[in-house]
Design a protein that fits this description.
By secondary structure, this protein is α+β, with helices and mostly antiparallel strands. The chain contains one helix and eleven strands. Strands 3, 4, 6, 9 and 11 form a five-stranded antiparallel β-sheet that branches. The chain has a four-stranded antiparallel β-sheet with strand order 5-10-7-8, with no helix packed on it. A two-stranded antiparallel sheet has the order 1-2. A hairpin with a 6-residue loop joins strand 1 and strand 2. The termini are far apart. Keywords: Signal.
Amino acid sequence: MRRRWVIGGLALGALALLAGQASYEPWHQPDCFGVIGQVIFCATGKGREAVPCGLMTSPLNVMTAPFVRATIDPIIFDGVTTTPKQFAISKPANATTYRFVNPCDVDVRIRKVGSLSETVTATTGVRYLARTVEVIGTSNPSFVSIMAVSAPSTPCAPELQYGNGS
């Protein structure tokens, strides 16, 4: 008799497990399509609904990767003053971003130019504030022109480092 109860209990347990499997609902996107495995998805907070992370509809944006240098040494723009100065530079093929370090006590402007005869002006190019670091996506410049927005009180030598990430 006791054996019947044990077998009956095991059968009911197995039945409960199978019933639980039948009610499993997979994750889906708002348009009811399934979630694919090659994309990182974030839960939306609605049932089993998920959207690709980083979208504006996602409650959690994708974390950015840290900046990783593509070259050992930075390009140093030595002797920057209020007079525009041109430099020839080369970007590594695998670099997608650059880090611009402005250790100067004044703002500087830098601009991609087509030749060493073109220059940046006080109203062109990108302005980098004094004593700041920025990481920006890059193009493939051959020449840049750089100038201080006002006269630096100490030698001014901003740095550009190619790499990947942000």
